[in-house]
Amino acid sequence: MTPKKLRLGVLASGGGTNLQSIIDNCQQQTIDAEIAVVICNNPDAGALARAEKAGRPHLCINHRDFKQREDFDRAVVAALQEAGVELVVLAGFMRIISAAFLEAFPQRIINIHPSLLPAFPGLHVQKKALEYGARFSGCTVHFVDGGVDTGPIIIQAVVPVLDGDTEESLSARILQQEHMIYSHAIQLFAEGRVQMNGRRVQIKGAQDNQSALINPPL
Amino acid sequence: MTPKKLRLGVLASGGGTNLQSIIDNCQQQTIDAEIAVVICNNPDAGALARAEKAGRPHLCINHRDFKQREDFDRAVVAALQEAGVELVVLAGFMRIISAAFLEAFPQRIINIHPSLLPAFPGLHVQKKALEYGARFSGCTVHFVDGGVDTGPIIIQAVVPVLDGDTEESLSARILQQEHMIYSHAIQLFAEGRVQMNGRRVQIKGAQDNQSALINPPL
Predict the structure, then answer these.
(1) C-alpha separations of B115 from A185, B48, B63, B112, B148 in Å
(2) What is the ipTM of this complex?
(3) Which range marks the domain in which residue B177 is found?
(4) For chain B, what is the radius of gyration of the CA atoms?
(5) pLDDT tens for each residue of A27-75
(6) Which of A52, A121, B12, B16 is the most exposed place for a label (fewest CB within 10 A)?
(7) A118 — contact with chain B (CB < 8 Å)?
(8) What are residue A84's DSSP bridge partners?
(9) Least Cα separation, residue B74 to chain A (angstroms)
(10) Which residues, numbered 144 to 173 in chain A, qualify as contacts with chain B under a Cβ-Cβ cut-off of 8 Å?
């Protein structure tokens, strides 16, 4: 018997490379999930074309058509519920999630951010990491809460920052890890392995790995 | 011909396990440095006993004997200069370094901090990292500047935070890396390989290592 697949609602505002990676993993059945709907707030979002090409349901709910943020959020929540979404996956979605939206999907909205949170929240984070002179950066899959990139952390990947790095080269190194950990996080939800302990997230059955990295290397 | 050894002035307020690791590495000649003087601001500091046992010059300059912080700093700077110190190494030194002190040793004062800065500056950082639910923490050797743990980063080590971690177990995992990277940073100074590029520190001749870590592991 094929296990029931976790129904994903993906929200995106832009090109959607993280969406593409999730589409690919769903199609290749490397994760037990399926894309129930892709919703964009921007009619030009490349994510809509990716969903179309993959034959997945998609719609644009243009935030400019709504006077109040709450009305926009209500429309998005209704569309997600209509599609039977179980996990809301933000993939470059550039709108703040309102309290009413959070309440509609408690502990069921996740985001990916291209830094090792709590370092470098917000925008332009690879540039900030380079300018700070951090020796490591990475990416973080976290629950969405009322703040900006402040929710409980599910999984992180760390990569070194190299002396010759530009914003582009560091972004590319991090993006490679984003594609791995975002689908992995979705699979952890599909397997029912994500548990909360205060704001510490625990993954049932996860192995301990005590590896360390030093940069610059010894 | 034996190369000239880099003369270190180590400032400590407490037990000094990082001092001990530097003493050991100097004695075993795994670094081209020698301890010119150990200065404590606290007569009970275990670091004084460690210096005594290792036969290295040491003195207590009690900050309580000075009405003004500047006077205390002037006394410390005079003692460091008297000892011919070339690199000032803070090892659990719980006093803020004044501007006059910084000017006396420009880009020659380093500190180690038990987090992956800029995440978790200040005190009780392993507890903060656990409570936040960070998947990675680590330690940072950085130049001291006028702020709290804000100076340019020389070297960092990253370790995973494990589900069962307590403040003690995480601190121990980080401390193991502290002992490695602090002596390594000193050796980079001894070899003249530390260069500034704005606030990005570059290490001449360092190898690139593109390894990544994911926690929890895939």
Answers:
(1) 25, 26, 27, 9, 13
(2) 0.92
(3) 111-207
(4) 17
(5) 999 999 999 999 999 999 999 999 999 999 999 999 999 999 899 999 9
(6) A52
(7) yes
(8) none
(9) 31
(10) 152-153, 155-160, 162-164, 173
